[in-house]
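ok so I'm stuck.
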Amino acid sequence: MASGEPLPSPLPGQSPAPSRAEQSRAEQSPAEPSCGEQDVGMTMARVTRGLPLACLMLLLLRRAPGAGAQVTRGFELQQPQDKVSVRAGRTLTLTCTLSGDVPAGPVKWLKGWGSGSETAYEQTGSFPRVTREVDGSDTDFTIHIKDIHPQDIGIYYCVKFHKSPSGDEVFRHGKGTEVSVYSTDAQVNQGFELQQPQDKVSVAVGETLTLTCTTSRDDSRGPMRWLKGWGSGNETIYDQMGSFPRVTRDVDWSDTDFTIHIRDVQPEDAGTYYCVKFSRYLGRIEVFRRGKGTEVSVYSTDAQVNQGFELQQPQDKVSVAVGETLTLTCTTSGDGPPGPMMWLKGWGSGNQTIYDQTGSFPRVMRAVDGSDTDFTIHLRNVCPEDAGTYYCVKFRKSLDGDEVFQHGKGTEVSVHSWNLLSSPGLWLGILLEKGLLGGLLVFLFKRGRA
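replied:
not stuck anymore, here's the structure
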């Protein structure tokens, strides 16, 4: 529009058009907030001026929702080594790499986890024996620990921390690398194996206990021993240099078979036994390998395992009506060890004693009272709560009390309500009664007509 032309008149209902000066000022000045926007800004200003300083600080420190998630999207920490074995005096390498968006915060290597953990390396400290694989890298935190010694044995964790208002917090950690250290004299013995195959052994008082242990051949210097128990309270049962009058080797002077025999076993010999290979390091003897342990139990001579003892519980399932008597059958044969017989309802921690030889059970009576072989019982006045599985159980006496020696397979008992229609005998009686009554009526009718 030319400068000399007049501005167009506004249409009816419209506001007058702004002048050119007003349009120029509007283009050059930023837009003013509306009344509503001014009110909100003034209100927020008044609110924040009224807040204590501590609250304002918390508002400033608080992160916007989702901000942390965006920073760490795709983050991964890789600690691929499960186990590492290293020779004493050599260098241990522990591998850890990061990828993705890495949050702010340090990376550390910890030996152990929890309150007793020890910092093996961090980026700001001084660790003379530790060097980085890639110095200054933000993604590769692989480290090398020089001059390894037995005290370095343990589980090492690569840990990423992130910064928070309360300090550094664990953000992610690796699965852990188990480090074992072998002595220089052991020379790793890569092919060395120790086999202790027995899990549990039971032996009678006065008899001979055999504990089996074999190894593959190795050239390391260090003794083999049998220990009873593990830890500070263990007891040496046999080693190659000592004198142990009750113990003999199965194959004397063998370098691979360390099976032993312990004569005249006593109750005090019960426990867990370990076959252990030691190695020498800097004049000290250290554990190199050990078996999984053999748990030994000792029973009294009068029990004598009772090889010919048998317990028979022949009933699989029994169904009985409410109010009737339930019969549960159990017999034994052979010489059983000293100890009671019981009937249990259920098995495990929630079982219930239905009958034992010493207690009082008003609803229960023996089929053959006082018998040492027939433990069949009758349970009177059966009710629905009596449904369940019943076990005939033989116990034997031990130092710790009565132990389960043998038990039946279980009899599953179901209880049903009494039903007239379910009794064939009752039906037969009813039919017989009706037949006799009908015959009598026919006889009387014919006699009356005669």
